[in-house]
Amino acid sequence: MSFFTTILLFGFASAQKVIQLSYCSIDEDHLRMDCKYSLPSESSEVFCKYTHGERLFDTTDPSEEQHAPFKKRAKARIFPGNICRLLYKNLPNGKSTFTCNIKVGDSAPVTKTSVVEKKLLLPCSAWSVLLQSCSGLLLTLMTFPMLLEIHWL
């Protein structure tokens, strides 16, 4: 029984997963979305794609075809540090749903979905990415000055 449990735990621990999905605006109407993922130590080629339901914004997999309306509006690329980035032009007003799909070899893809509301997008900067991705760090940075003020009273 313990052998079976060990195999199951090893299988789950070594699988790829999407860690984080963050986004910001490049210009007033353009979206940048970063999908950070982890990979097993022995991994083959990685493909990523962004979808909205059945519609494909873009993919790094040459065997899949991009949905026609997005050919000049969306571009997905893989960057060092296990990041799949989508650049999307002319984001419509209102809410839009984006799903990041990561696929390694013959394994099942892993996904993460986020709803983006255009009017709430922060401009891309180191600070906006920090706010989205490091809430614990932000809490620490905000708490530290308060602790100093209390100490001086």
UniProtKB/TrEMBL annotation:
One of its GO terms (biological process) is integrin-mediated signaling pathway. It comes from the Eukaryota. GO terms for cellular component: dendrite; external side of plasma membrane; focal adhesion; membrane raft; myelin sheath. It is found in: Cell membrane. The keyword NAD does not apply. Its main location: membrane. The keyword Cell membrane applies. Residues 1-15 form the signal peptide. GO terms for molecular function: GTPase activator activity; integrin binding. Keywords: Cell membrane, Disulfide bond, Glycoprotein, Immunoglobulin domain, Lipoprotein, Membrane, Signal. This is Thy-1 cell surface antigen. It comes from Oreochromis aureus (Israeli tilapia). The lineage of its organism: Eukaryota, Metazoa, Chordata, Craniata, Vertebrata.
